[in-house]
Design goal:
Strand order of the largest sheet: 5-6-7-8
Number of strands: 9
Shape: globular
Radius of gyration: 16 Å
Largest sheet: 4 strands, antiparallel
Distance between the termini: 22 Å
Strand content: 35-45%
Bound molecules: zinc ion
Structural class: mainly beta
Length: 90
């Protein structure tokens, strides 16, 4: 949300965040610091425990074994579920 000169808020759609999101998603994700939503611990994505599954990957926290990230590859799409992640810092 952006404020105008008179202090009112301007609401834009997600396209306005394209530049910022592109910077985030093009970065090397393995060096990003991820915070587990379950226990609050912070670690590099590359240090998470990987449980490979047929269609993708399940990444678990090294401290509490909570699922922080699930990635699935289908014939038409890529899915990323991050319910177990509190934050991701690049
Ligand atoms: Zn955890």
């Amino acid at each position: 949300m952006t404020r105008t000169e008179n202090g009112s808020n301007v609401v834009l759609d997600g396209n306005a965040a394209a530049g910022l999101l592109q910077e985030i998603f093009v970065s090397d994700i393995t060096s990003a610091q991820i915070q587990c939503a379950a226990c609050g611990s912070v670690a590099a994505v590359g240090s998470l425990r990987l449980y490979a599954v047929q269609m993708g990957a399940v990444l678990r926290c090294r401290h509490c074994e909570g699922i922080v990230m699930r990635a699935v590859h289908t014939p038409h799409d890529r899915w990323l579920e991050m319910t177990g992640t509190r934050s991701l810092r690049f």
